[in-house]
Amino acid sequence: MAVLDSKIPQGELANKWTKHKNDINLVNPANKRNIDVIIVGTGLAGGAAAATLAELGYNVKAFCYQDSPRRAHSIAAQGGINAAKNYQGDGDSTYRLFYDTVKGGDYRSREANVYRLAEVSANIIDQCVAQGVPFAREYGGLLDNRSFGGVLVSRTFYAKGQTGQQLLLGAYSAMNRQINRGKIKMYNRHEMLDVVIVDGKARGIIARDLITGEIERHSAHAVVIASGGYGNVFFLSTNAMGSNVTASWKIHKRGAYFANPCYTQIHPTCIPVSGDHQSKLTLMSESLRNDGRIWVPKKLEDAKAIREGKLKPTELAEEDRDYYLERRYPSFGNLVPRDVASRAAKERCDAGFGVNATGEAVYLDFAAAIMRYGSEKAATSGMKNPTDAEIRKLGEEVIEAKYGNLFQMYEKIVDENPYKTPMKIYPAVHYTMGGVWVDYNLMTTIPGCYCTGEANFSDHGANRLGASALMQGLADGYFVLPYTIGDYLSQDIRTGAIPTDSPEFDEAEKNVKDQIEKFINNNGTHSVDHYHKKLGKIMWNKCGMARNAQGLQEAIEEIRELRDDFYKNVKVPGLANDKNSELEKALRVADFLELGELFAKDALHRNESCGGHFREEYQTEEGEAMRDDVNFKYVAAWEYKGEPKDAVLHKEELVYENIEVKTRSYK
């Protein structure tokens, strides 16, 4: 078993990144004009990297399967982005953000990477303000902050409930400037289907034009994968329906190790599943937990009456409500981390206290916040003896200013007014902390192949704190990769353009075309979605919020059988050389069917509970996660060997020199 070299710089934690930047090699501006970089994915991580590298002078080729970078799934992030600015004067600092992130990840993240993330976080806000991102501001004009789960300070910058959209537009505007200059060549509606390795280095990709079906060869001196997470392996998730693992999985099959695939985040505040007809789930921002209180009825008979429509939640007296997060975790209350809140909701619903027809929902109630804000507004407005109705009206106006688009979205989907009736929420698959293994420089185990944002594993451990995804994506794209990739590319200043008429490109293109032809000519009887839904049910039932050894072993066998059946019986209508969305899905689901097995294998080997990975065999008497730091304090990085069952485990031991590793507690 190889020991992975994470290339973490020596020295004091607070000085590692600064010293590393001073030590690495640079590329002369005149030489940058002769170097090409491919970036796959144009969300926040990819878009920020493309814009920054092009600004530095590199020639960038950017690929996205959407019709525009503005459609990247980063647009869906709602609640905010973390930064250690301490604008509230409530004790925040770079170290505090670093500590909260490592603790939130249940001590399964790399210390040096997380500290660097916290260190550059403040720069992200300045960068985005300069781009015109309309962050919320206080009355005096200063940027406003709110709190998120797993922390005791307010460090989250936000733009109402559409922070991801506004940040993406900032990155997109920076990209557009470089597209106009000719420094970025944009390939919309293109999907990467393989990476090309020449002399051991990543030197290009094979891509499919999703409009014409043409298979194309693109070369570069380095390849950056910024294609997001793999939550859609569960079929139902909060991800956009097109989100996939293909780019990450293709480089895995070419030699990039895949790390911690079982670390998947279940988000506690999603609109509950309504039936088998659904193709995706909708997230309600975690920011709502700042003001919303989560509860279920205290009595089983009340829960049953609510499910049957005989009792309205607003009719239930305060003393008959169980604010279970406030009861179990008094220090953090409704702002416990996502994994803790999700398991607590599942526990209450499994016990029979769920409040919708399926019994899988809890309430997120804003009544108290509306009255509290209304009273404050009435007092500051000089109102004397306002009525409850007047206070409620004022309070609803405040809530609308903070969360209005989220409330509007909920009402459109559920057809209930959340100002008058508590929202119903339930956990759902959201983010993936696992991903492609990268070193401190964000390089994978393939030289010249980098991976950024959610597609890599590096910063969140076993559980991501809210508002940290946008932080990591922009940190990687704007402030980390542009430095570290230069160290590698400094060896390529005399290489010249990479030709595409080589045996390596021939072989990669042939592999892609062979797979496409196999699907097109397969006279099966079942649709791609038929198999994707089956895979999703196996994953959710046996690899979801809670796992056990028996279920994981069954999942491995069932996924293997499903994969065999998929290749024999899937039907892909249409032509290869044409627009063909079913073919696109088939290629993606083929990768999910391999990833799903490795996911279950990784979860089975990790005999502990930590963060989003909860093994039923390893829990405390109170139902909390029980880690095994003696045997499992490492990153599990898997090497591809032809089949998921043959994957070889490599370990990166996690060393904590600046944080005391202890049992997580939010009580």
Secondary structure elements and pairings:
Elements: H1 16-23, H2 29-32, E1 36-40, H3 44-56, E2 59-63, E3 81-82, H4 94-104, H5 111-130, E4 156-157, H6 163-181, E5 184-187, E6 190-198, E7 201-209, E8 215-219, E9 222-225, H7 246-253, E10 258-259, E11 264-270, E12 293-297, H8 300-307, E13 321-322, H9 324-328, H10 338-353, E14 362-365, H11 367-380, H12 388-414, E15 423-432, E16 435-436, E17 449-451, H13 469-489, H14 503-520, H15 528-543, H16 549-569, H17 581-605, H18 629-632, E18 634-639, E19 648-653
Parallel strand pairs: 1-2, 1-9, 2-5, 9-17
Antiparallel strand pairs: 3-4, 6-7, 7-8, 10-16, 10-18, 11-15, 12-13, 12-14, 14-15, 18-19
Helix pairs in contact: 3-6, 3-13, 4-5, 5-13, 11-12, 15-16, 15-17, 16-17
Write up what this structure looks like:
Helix content is 39%, strand content 14%. With 667 residues, the protein is of the alpha+beta class. Strand 18 and strand 19 form a beta hairpin. A five-stranded parallel sheet has the order 5-2-1-9-17, with helices on both faces. Strands 11-15-14-12-13 form a five-stranded antiparallel sheet. The mean pLDDT is 96. It has 18 helices and 19 strands.
Provide a brief overview of the structure:
With 667 residues, the protein is an alpha+beta fold.
Report how far the terminal alpha carbons are from each other: 40 Å
Helix content: 25-40%
What's the overall average pLDDT, rounded?
96
Specify the overall morphology: globular
How many H/I helical runs? Answer: 18
Radius of gyration: 25 Å
Strand order across the biggest sheet? Answer: 5-2-1-9-17
Class by alpha and beta content: alpha+beta
